[in-house]
Amino acid sequence: MLSPVILAGGYGERLWPLSTPDMPKPFSLRDARGHSLFQATILRVANRAKFAPPLVVCNSAHQLLVREQLRAIGCEDATMMLEPEARNTAPAIALAAFHIMNESPHSVMLVMPADHHIDAPEHLLAALDQASAAAEAGHVVTFAITPTAPETGYGYIQRGAAIAVAPSVFAIAKFIEKPEREVAERLLKAGDYGWNSGMFVMRASQALVEFEQHAPEILAACRAAYGLSVFDGSCVMPDAECFARARAVAFDRAIMERTTRGAVMPLAMGWRDLGNWAALYELATKDARGNAVTGEATLHDVENSHIYSDGTPINAVGLHDMLVVAANGQLLVAPKQRGAEACSAAVEHYKKRGDASVTQRPWGEFHIIEAGAQYQVKQLTLRPRGKISLQRHAKRSEHWVVVSGMATVTRGQEQFMLYENQSTFIAAGVMHRLENNCDEPLVIIEVQTGSYLGEDDIERFEDMYARVSD
């Protein structure tokens, strides 16, 4: 039985503003069935006859988000490894190996990033028998995706001789990191190169041996962090101070490019790493003029452009080869070929300002529309069946106005319904709760007034998400 390790700790800055620190791309990007990339990854390993319950390695700030997305697809047996901070994939995999060794010492790990798109996951599942056989023999196996174009945004792996115990698995002959176009064309013609998928199959014990040989400082930091971790049954919380000593580096760089036990299995499964807007444009369905449109948009004289909106209608005229994104209350407009540069500049700007576009909660999300001395205006969106905790505030009052949907309000001893354009007032010190018992999102404008408006001014009495604090 394979032990899945799902790497879900990335931010995805090159997909701003769709991907934000509060709602990274594995959780915000959706497939045709409405599943996030993270959920689709979890569903690939849902067969408990073949896979052990997954271990999800994610940022501690996303614990509630991960828990809610797991609950939505009926995965109740996953364990979360909560990284105190992002340190790239090598420390994440080392932590996972320690945990799996502790739980099941002879397990083979299947490591998968949570932000990949796969058209034919059945091809991956069919390949796991041979990959596992090679892993049982002590190899560290990765998958090389059969290239369909001379991509310059992916690393390449050249295969060498076949491995005796698994004829479809080969020794790794060479790694080539993100080649120039001319080189990529040559690699495509050679026929023995594939795109580096970033997925791995290996025994947990072998992973620790490789770290001991090639990255002992990472191993030592993660051993200490795991040794001092807190485990509450569904979450493992490594020690932050120890984990901070681990060098932030990718598993490919720390281990795969150095090990003598590396192996590669060629695989065609419609795989894409959705790391930037260019990758999303390539994957998207396009109209007769080459435009990829998501959301509500009206186009006139627009060609070869990528238009994306999470709700705001977009009207575009005379655009050619442009990227227009309206998401999470932010707008990005740039030439399509400069999308990565535009995202980088925008993210740097917002980091300096310290702005947060949308704040996620297990019941939904909110963003601040305006704030001033002793007042703050927020838009709250409660997902279907979401509810805030039964709570009260000592220093602020709240005014709620329903924009769309139907709200169930608890205020003191009374409970009542609010419909569109109706409102209510919650005085400081009054116990209250807001619920969405419908199948559509509930949108509320909340006006807060008082001497202190911080998120920590909350006394919680009941909470379906078992939170101690927001």
Describe this structure as you would to a colleague:
This protein has 470 residues and is an alpha/beta fold. The protein has a 6-stranded antiparallel sheet, with no helix packed on it. A 5-stranded mixed beta barrel has the order 6-9-7-8-12. Helix 3 links the parallel strand 2 (55-59) and strand 3 (79-83). The two termini are 38 Å apart.
Question: Which strand order spans the largest sheet, edge to edge or round the barrel?
Answer: 20-21-22-29-24-27
In CATH terms, the superfamily of the largest domain is: Spore Coat Polysaccharide Biosynthesis Protein SpsA, Chain A
Give the helix/strand class: alpha/beta
**CATH first level of the largest domain: which class?**
Alpha Beta
CATH topology of the largest domain: Spore Coat Polysaccharide Biosynthesis Protein SpsA, Chain A
Q: Globular, elongated, flat, extended or rod-shaped: what is the shape?
A: globular
Tell me the number of helical segments per DSSP (H or I, 4 or more residues long): 12
- Percentage of helical residues? 25-40%
> Into how many domains do the coordinates divide?
3
The biggest beta sheet reads: 6 strands, antiparallel
- What is Rg? 24 Å
- Low-pLDDT residue intervals, each spanning 5 or more residues: none
- Averaged pLDDT: 91
CATH architecture of the largest domain: Alpha-Beta Complex
Report the oligomer: single chain
N/C terminus separation:
38 Å
Strand content: 35-45%
Tell how many strands the DSSP assignment holds. 30
